[in-house]
Design goal:
Number of helices: 6
Order of helices and strands: HHHHHH
Oligomer: single chain
Number of domains: 1
Shape: elongated
CATH topology: Ferritin
Structural class: mainly alpha
Helix content: over 70%
Length: about 170
């Protein structure tokens, strides 16, 4: 554990930060797997565009997990060591895909991003002016999650609009 680096943390227990980060760590691994598996099973209209987006997002979630893990270790904590722990520590949960349709997959992914945005927003609020290193990391991840939600929502809206226009032309 960094002595001087952690001595600048003020007004919050390091153990509390580690707990919050471990929960976020669990979320990142579950999000990674969700995007990975959804990209494999997805079916339907514009699936190739959605597969490309899910694959990019999966890589980002894995990068986020690495960043969070590194910060946990830097703070003197231990990251969750077993995938079984992810389910008991997650903020956002994991919903295995049931409907492989593009719209259903996108709805699940958007829901996950919205939860991640809420999670990282609350961590940022808690550590702001108390732990600048964690705050900076969380802010970077939060920016990615906001971008992910926008990307997924745009795809969803484009597909929904196309489906509606098809329905209109069939009348």
């Amino acid at each position: 554990m960094a002595k001087r680096g952690n001595s600048i943390i003020r007004g919050i227990e390091v153990s509390q930060i580690i707990t919050l980060l471990n929960n976020a760590y669990a979320d990142e691994w579950l999000a990674y797997y969700q995007y990975f598996i959804e990209a494999k099973v997805i079916k339907g209209l514009m699936k190739d565009a959605v597969i490309a987006e899910l694959t990019l997002h999966a890589a980002d979630e894995l990068r986020h997990a690495t960043m969070v893990c590194d910060r946990i270790v830097q703070l003197g904590g231990t990251p969750l060591l077993s995938p079984q722990e992810w389910y008991t520590h997650t903020n956002c949960g994991y919903d295995a895909p049931k409907d492989f349709d593009v719209v259903g997959i996108l709805n699940d992914a958007i829901k996950g991003e919205q939860c991640a945005i809420s999670t990282y927003s609350s961590i940022a609020d808690l550590v702001k002016d108390k732990d600048i290193v964690t705050y900076d990391m969380v802010s970077q991840i939060l920016a990615d999650e906001v971008e992910h939600e926008e990307d997924l929502q745009s795809l969803h809206d484009d597909i929904a609009e196309f489906i509606e226009s098809l329905k209109g032309s069939l009348k």
